[in-house]
From TrEMBL:
Top-level taxon of origin: Bacteria
UniProt KW keywords: Cell membrane, Cell projection, Chemotaxis, Cilium, Flagellar rotation, Flagellum, Membrane
Lineage, uppermost ranks: Bacteria, Pseudomonadati, Pseudomonadota, Alphaproteobacteria, Hyphomicrobiales
Record family assignment: Belongs to the FliN/MopA/SpaO family.
InterPro entries in the cross-refs: FliN-like_C (IPR001543), FliN/MopA/SpaO (IPR051469), FliN_T3SS_HrcQb (IPR001172), SpoA-like_sf (IPR036429)
Domain Flagellar motor switch protein FliN-like C-terminal: start-end pairs: 5-72
Gene3D superfamilies, per database record: SpoA-like
Protein name in UniProt: Flagellar motor switch protein FliN
Main location: membrane
Originating organism: Roseibium limicola
Length: 88
């Protein structure tokens, strides 16, 4: 029987977005900067398996970067747990 410790979840954090033509993207080299549509105080979006689960703020943890969760998104009533066959 599997435990929660054995389940992997893909976590993604989106800082912002930008639109540009492909030719401009292909000309970018090392050190190029892409302007994002956010300011430094805006929340980032936290996704688990491509589903928005939270918002947060970027924090510095020594030499590492982390996310401080500011809001947990409520699950839609339309989202139901996946059913499995047989006993759990």
């Amino acid at each position: 029987m599997a435990t929660f410790d054995e389940i992997n979840v893909d976590i993604s954090v989106v800082l912002g977005a930008s639109e540009m033509p492909v030719h401009q993207l292909l000309r970018m080299g090392r050190g190029a900067v892409i302007d994002l549509d956010v300011s430094e105080d805006d929340d980032v979006l936290v996704y688990a398996n491509k589903t928005l689960v939270a918002r947060g703020q970027v924090v510095l943890l020594g030499e590492r970067i982390g996310i401080s969760i500011t809001e947990v998104m409520l699950r839609s009533p339309d989202v139901r747990p996946m059913r499995t066959e047989g006993p759990l």
